[in-house]
Protein: 3-oxoacyl-ACP reductase
Amino acid sequence: MHLPAVFSNMFDFSGRQVCVTGAASGIGRATAVLFADLGAQVFVADRDEQALQELVSERPSSFRAVVYDQAHTSSIEELAAAIGDVDVLINNAGILLYEPLLQLKFSDLAKVVSVNLTGAITLSRLVGERMVARGQGTIIHTGSQLAYNGAEFRSVYAATKAGISQFVKTAALEWGPHGIRVNCVAPGRTLTPINQHLLQQPEQYSEAIKRIPLGRFGQPQDMANAFAFLASDASAYVTGHTLVVDGGWILP
Ligand SMILES: NC(=O)c1ccc[n+]([C@@H]2O[C@H](COP(=O)([O-])OP(=O)(O)OC[C@H]3O[C@@H](n4cnc5c(N)ncnc54)[C@H](O)[C@@H]3O)[C@@H](O)[C@H]2O)c1
Structure:
C-alpha cells in the first residue's frame, strides 16, 4: 500500500538533527534506530562508550556518538555544546532504584535524583534555550507509568518520574509561545535490561503480566513509535502531555 504524502511527510525526518540520550540500550537504542530509519541524523548519547561505538559502527552515516554522564552538570553542558542546534531531543537516559524505603541509602537517593530528575531537567534547560532562540524544536522526556501508580521498592524512582511529568507541563507552558513543544512518554513495563531483576524471577514476571490488559510487556519499539509520534507533525497540537504506553496497566 502506498501511504498518502500528507501522512508520510509527517514522519519524514530527513535533514533533521535528533539527539537521543540513553541510546546505548533498550528504549533509547530502539528510538535512535527508528529516527535513523526515518531519515534523521542522530546524536546517540550515553555513558556506555563501548555500546555506543558498537551502535555507531552499524550505521556510521546516521549516528554520531557523544559519551557523557547525566549525573554531572559539567558533562551535560559538554553534551549540549556537542549537539548544538538539534530539532528533537529525546531526553531518555535514566536509572532504576529498587530498594525498600526503610533500607534506602541516601547516596542512592541522591544518585537517582541527580540522573533522572536534575540531570534530565538540566539537559532540557540547555537544549531548550537554543530551541527558544531559534523558535523551533521539540523535547520529549521519558517518564514512567510509575508516575501514576504506587509501586513497592521504587519510591524514589517513581518520585523522579512524577517530577518529570510535572516539569514537562511547565516547560510546555513557558516555551509554547516560542514554538517549542515539550512532552513525555511514560512507558509501562518494557523488555529492557533495566528490568533484569524481574526477568530473572519467573514467578514475579508472570504475576506482573497478569496485571497488564494487553497481556504482554512492552517492547522498546512500542516506546520508539510513541516518541516518533510526539516528535512528528502528526502531534503538532500536542504539548505538555504525558503519553502513557503501558498496555493498559494503569487502568484498574
Ligand atoms: N524498561 C522499563 O520497563 C521502563 C519503564 C518505565 C520507564 N523507563 C525509562 O526508560 C528509560 C530508558 O530505560 P531502558 O528501559 O531502556 O533501560 P536501559 O538500562 O536499557 O537503558 C538506559 C540507558 O541509560 C544510560 N544511562 C544510565 N545512566 C546514565 C547516566 N548517568 N548518563 C548517561 N547515560 C546513562 C545507560 O547506560 C543505558 O544505556 C529510562 O529513563 C527508564 O527510567 C523504563
About this structure: The chain has one domain: 13-245.
